[in-house]
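Hey L., structure's done. Input below.
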Amino acid sequence: MRRLAPVTLITIGVLALLVWYVIYTRSVVHELRQEASRVGLMYARVYNGLSDPNPDAANAALLDLSRHIRESGVPMILADDAGNPTDTANLPFTAGMRSKQMRNYMLELDRQNLPIVEPGMGTVHFGNTPLVRGLILIPVLQSILIGMVLLAGAYALRTRGRADREQIWAGMARESAHQLGTPLSRSRGDYHRCYRSHGR
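Output:
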């Protein structure tokens, strides 16, 4: 039973890893479908606004598009040509536009993605979506778990090999004792027989 324990643990670990991978992959597919749905909806709203003869329809479509972008969860900072923040969306903190924290976060966003420069409008500094952040983190966690399973497997094989060697040595020791014990017993018996036959 003790021999099967490491193999059972490794099997459970591998199965858990596979189940987690399947669940995570399905969640990624679900989020990608939602993202595609949002893009399709934004396209439809923009097209509707542009084809509507009402002069305010285009502005309404742009405002609607802006709302959908804010709902995407992507952190963004819009800065003017001088690099001063003018608008934000989805930031993980609340701070003034001219604060040091805002400037530091702009640099952090620039490390994540190259900013988009629009002449006359300014620069858009943007980060990663929650999906991208998950895609960065989850493979690291999966690699750690795979490493742990491999280490457990190596340990189980090593332990099993050691147990097998110990059994071989124990068997050899028993056989050696038997091989040595038989002549010694016989010699002792011969000694007693000789001792009795000589009357001592």
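The chain has a mean pLDDT of 79. The first strand starts at residue 76 and ends at 79.

-- N.
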